[in-house]
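Quick illustration, no need to memorize.
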Amino acid sequence: MLAPMLTPLASAFAAKPADIAWLVSAYAVSYAVLAPLIGLLSDRIGRRRLLLPALGFFAADALAVAFAPSLTFAIVARILGGAAGAALTPTAFALIVETVPEDRQADAMGLVLFGLTLGIATGPTFAGLLTDAFDWQAPFIAVACGCLAVLVLAARILPPSAARQGRPLKASAARLLDGAILRPNLSKGFWLGATIAGFLISGEVLRNRYGLSTSMVGLSVTAFGIGLAAGNLAIGRLTAWAGRPETILIFAIALIFVTQSAFLAIDSSLALAIGLLALWGFASGLAAPANTAIQASRAGTDADFVLASSESMNNGALLVLAPIVASWVGGRDTASAAILLGVCTLAALSVNLVDR
């Protein structure tokens, strides 16, 4: 949602777009620190008991940012959002591991990611349109209302999830050092952290190059979300064709490197830039469920803790990358951003080639 909003938020808080990137970094650091601990809690109290309060906290975070008296207050409030996010995504994937047969988990995760992708595909558009039509607070208020609506729905449809006695923390943590688990975790940290940081600045790249309004920026970056949705929907068939999610992951990360680098480094026509965004999203839509299925399959009973720890790596990378690349793009230095994010993506590709 923030992709088209860096400049309007900067104006509202009398700050630079690079300073607004700390709204993402504050979320990321909270997520990175708390995700493993919340993963262990999820194992012990059950998935439903964790997912429902997390939706409420996410709504509270959006309202806190909408009515923040200063940027500092908004950044601190994002810590609450990071804690809620840490309870939502890995717990949802762990619920799949509990309830879906292993041979269908990649497809199921693709469908769940498709649901998340709807937010990515529509979020920038609605954020841009609401900001232009009303004010920058409107998208955050809409998010809060959406979370509360989903909370009511989830309370009706989420199945009860029995708590279980998780393994001791020491035993679960030791699994993270197992090469079969460490390699896909590192890979996801590199490529997904770079992808999210790149997508965050994509709106500013379009605004600087083509002089687009906030609503037009939002509409343009929706191409990434549409590609992401296509990748999520295609993962099941492509995995069945390729035989292994590891093969799909290598192809997807290579495609991310090419499309992300070209989008950031090449001053092309607007049509080509949007096409590159769509392909970049498609590759990411393949990589996310493939990587997650590999992690979940190898983690076994420690799936929630392993997936949560992986999310910590993603957000740790995002914490570092987001303010750096936002600062460069604010200074119209997209080449440096392309090089840094490309190095991270190539590192992920190297890890996966070794893992395969």
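The chain has a mean pLDDT of 83.
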